[in-house]
Write a structure and sequence with these properties.
This protein has about 140 residues and is an alpha/beta fold. It is built from five helices and four strands; from the N terminus they run E-E-H-H-E-H-H-E-H.
C-alpha cells in the first residue's frame, strides 16, 4: 500500500474513528511553512515540545502514539497555493512525510497523505504519461 496519493478535489475520505484518525487540511488557509506547521500541530495534536522545523516535524510524524491509533490519513485539500509559493518546502514536506510513513509501516502502522487538488492531479497525470511515453521510447 502506498503512502502517497494525488486525487481530484472531490475525494471522499474516511471518517475518524477509534481505530483511524483522519485529518483534513484546508489549503486555502495554508500558504506558508509556519502555517503548515501550525495546522499539522493542531490537527495531529503535537506535544508542546514540537520545534516547528522539518526535523521536529519528522520526529512528531514518526511517533503520533498520543493519538491512540496507528492508522492516520492526512488529506490536504487545495494545496496548490502552498506548492506554488513554496516549491522547495513542499518537496521537503513530501520527503519528511515519506520517511515517517516508512517508519509507521515498519511498526505495523499506516500513515497516508492524500493531496486533493485538481491542479496537482492534472500535473501528476501529465508526469505519469510523460514517464510512460519515455519508457516506451527506450524499449
Amino acid at each position: 500500500m502506498s503512502w502517497f496519493y494525488v486525487a481530484e478535489s472531490d475525494v471522499t475520505d474516511p471518517e475518524s474513528s477509534s481505530t483511524r484518525k483522519t485529518v483534513r487540511i484546508d489549503g486555502n488557509t495554508v500558504s506558508t511553512t509556519d502555517e503548515l506547521f501550525d495546522c499539522l500541530s493542531q490537527y495531529l495534536e503535537f506535544p508542546n515540545y514540537f520545534g516547528r522545523n522539518w526535523s521536529a516535524l519528522e520526529d512528531c510524524l514518526g511517533d503520533l502514539q498520543w493519538l491512540g491509533t496507528n492508522v492516520i490519513t492526512v488529506i490536504w485539500f487545495q494545496c496548490r497555493t502552498y506548492f506554488l509559493k513554496n516549491p522547495e518546502d513542499f518537496l521537503t514536506f513530501l520527503d519528511v512525510f515519506e520517511n515517517s510513513a516508512s517508519w509507521h509501516k515498519q511498526v505495523g502502522g499506516d500513515l497516508r497523505l492524500i493531496l486533493s487538488d485538481d491542479y496537482l492531479y492534472r500535473v501528476s497525470l501529465a508526469l505519469k504519461n510523460a514517464t510512460l511515453s519515455n519508457e516506451n521510447n527506450h524499449q
